[in-house]
Each structure stands twice: as structure tokens, then as C-alpha cells.
Amino acid sequence: MPILAGGKLAGKAGRTSIGALNVLTDSEKLDTQTLPRRNFSVLRIKRDVLARSNVGFIWVNKQSEVSEGGWGDYNRAGGLDFSFSPSTAVNVQAFYARTWDTEQEDVDDARYLRFSYSGTKYAGSATVLDVEDNFEPETGFVNRRRGIRGFRRYNVNLSYLPRPKVANIRNLRFTPDIQVIEDDEGEVPFQRFRLDGVLALQTADRFLVRVERTRDVVTRTFRPSSKRPDVAIPPEEYTFTSFRLGPDTANYRKLQLDFDFLVGTYYTGHLYRVTAENAYRPNGRLGIELIYDGNWIRLPQANLNIQALSTRLIYSFTTDFFFKIFAQWNSDSESVGANFLLNYRFRPGSDIFFVYDHGFGTDDDLHQTSRAVLLKVSYLIGL
């Protein structure tokens, strides 16, 4: 989506934070449709209250140009939220939101409530998210499951953190976690139980072991690979189990290694997965990151090998001048992308950003699919 112009204003006066954003995008022709010119606006106000709490309001508006002239099509969302912390260990968060749309006669809402406790030996949280059928913030998204519009999602987890006086162990962490999704008819199409065990050392290195049991009621056929649309998971009730383990080294190390190995059943077959997130930072100027995600899915219909590889290089000439280069390859989408960012801070709180992005397809041969250039200037005004 080509951006014609945009601006953002953000700041804080006393205990009140204010942010405003406006972006104008041009029309764009795609393979099967033409996207109209659009204007996006966001207003966010947050007020700090008491010692560790806040209340807030957000308004999001998307106006689309219509063929008859004018900007008659809209999608709007408004919401209220708060975060209340009577102590450093207890926190309660909630929001209420509503959307309006020219294509929807009925307006619908979303509600969220979360309670969390974080102690030195025990911790836990309980969360409920309630989303109605026609709640649809188009500037953003709602993570709905296939075939479900209105739903309620429940999450509960409890953690026990013993500190055994053994060798170099800082603590152990045992966390059972339950997630249940209920549709608007009271049916439960998804359940997941997860048990994590984490060993943390005094050096801040960690080792994770996870066992997960999932029940998923598939009501619509879905395809796990976009490259192989002939391979589909049929509607049915599935139950599968996975086992995952791997080390994670501390962030302060020059060489950071994070590996995960997963094996388990997956719908009609089996899944084997390897992920690696590694970083090398020899000094305060240079950083190199390498991320690999490999999935080997074995189904009766076919075998699928889906892999993604990305790398990022960061170099700082000074504390106020640095650049980033990011490149990614995905075997399933048959794409390669590269991104270059240059950031110069010409005064405290004020920056110039230059971004160049280039995308390529690799399905038949290497060919260009997208290209974009972005210039952004931020300026801090002291009042």
C-alpha cells in the first residue's frame, strides 16, 4: 500500500500522555481488485493515576474514497482501558472497545479483563477476552479461529518458583497453562493444556522443557502450506501432543544461542520443528542476528518442508547514527525480501529515518514483486 504522506504528534504534559497519527495512502491495483485511496487517523490519550496505574482512551478511524466521489466509506473503533496496580506484585488490566462500519448495520463490542500476580515464589494470571460477531477493527485485526466470529477466550496459568540451593541454579519454574476458546453458541472448538519446566542458572542462562496437549475441532478445511494447495486438513475433531526442549543463553553474552527442538503429532500426521535465534555482538557497535525456523510436516497426503531464514546486521557509527540491514527467505511463500534502514539523531529526541525495502519472488525465477522508499522525520518540541 503506497503511502503518500503521514504525520505523528506525541508527547506528555504532566501525568497525561497524548498521541495523534494521520496517514494518507494512494490507490493501488492488485491482481483481482483495486484498493481505493484511504486516510487513517489515530488518537490516544492516557492519564497516570495513583502510583502505578493509568486510564486511557483510543479512537481509530479509516476513511476510504468511493467511486461516486468523497470519502463515504469508513471503519471506526473506539475504546477505553485501564491498568490498576495496588502493589508491585498485583496488576489488573481491562479494556472495552466498539467498532462502527458502513458495511455493518449492527455495532458490536469486545471486552478484556486480566488479573496477574507476580511473587518471588508463586505467580499466575487469569485472562478472559470476549469478542462479538461484528467487532471488526480493520485498522488492525482480531485473531479469530477459522469459522468462528464471536468467541470467548479464557487463559489461566500458575507458576511455582522454588530456589534449590544446588550448584549454580538460580531457580526452577513450573507453569501449567490452560487456554479454552468458546464460540457464541457455547461450544468449545479449541482447548490447550501446556506444562512448562524452566531451569534458570545464576548466569541467567535457561533451559526449557514443554509438553503440550491440544484439542482442535476443525470446521473448515485448511491448508498448512500455501505452496501446496492440494494438501488439506479435512474437518474433524483432532487431538495431538507435542514435546519441546531447548537452551536459551543470557542476553549479555557476546554470542547468544537460543535453540528449540519440537516433535509431536499434528492433525493427521506428525510435526518436527527446529528453531534457532542466534546473535553475535562483539562490541557496542556491531550486532549480527541469524534466525532459522524449519518445519517438517509428515501427513498421509504428502510431506511438507517449510523453512524460513532471516538475518539482521546492525552497525552504529556513533550513538546518534546507525544503520540496519534485514533479509529474509521463506520457502513456502517462495519469496525473498531485503530492508535497509538508516537512522540519524540530529538532536535529542529528534530523528531522521530513511528506509528502502525490496521484495522478490522465487517461484519460477528471481523476479521483483515490490519496492518501497520511506523518509520519516521526527522532531521533539519542548513546551
Primary descriptors:
0% helix, mainly beta, 24 strands, Porin, 383 residues
What can you see in these coordinates?
By secondary structure, this protein is mainly beta. It has a domain at 221-383: Beta Barrel (Porin). It has no helices and 24 strands. The protein has strands at residues 3-13, 16-25, 28-29, 34-35, 38-49, 53-64, 73-84, 90-101, 104-118, 122-131, 151-160, 169-183, 190-201, 206-218, 236-248, 255-256, 259-266, 269-280, 286-298, 303-318, 321-330, 335-347, 350-361, 367-378. The model has no long low-confidence stretch (mean pLDDT 92).
**Record field, number of beta strands:** 24
The CATH level-2 architecture of the domain at 221-383 is identified as Beta Barrel
- Provide the CATH topology of the domain at 221-383: Porin
- Low-confidence regions: none
How are the secondary structure elements laid out?
Layout: E1 3-13, E2 16-25, E3 28-29, E4 34-35, E5 38-49, E6 53-64, E7 73-84, E8 90-101, E9 104-118, E10 122-131, E11 151-160, E12 169-183, E13 190-201, E14 206-218, E15 236-248, E16 255-256, E17 259-266, E18 269-280, E19 286-298, E20 303-318, E21 321-330, E22 335-347, E23 350-361, E24 367-378
Antiparallel strand pairs: 1-2, 2-5, 3-4, 5-6, 6-7, 7-8, 8-9, 9-10, 10-11, 11-12, 12-13, 13-14, 14-15, 15-17, 16-18, 17-18, 18-19, 19-20, 20-21, 21-22, 22-23, 23-24
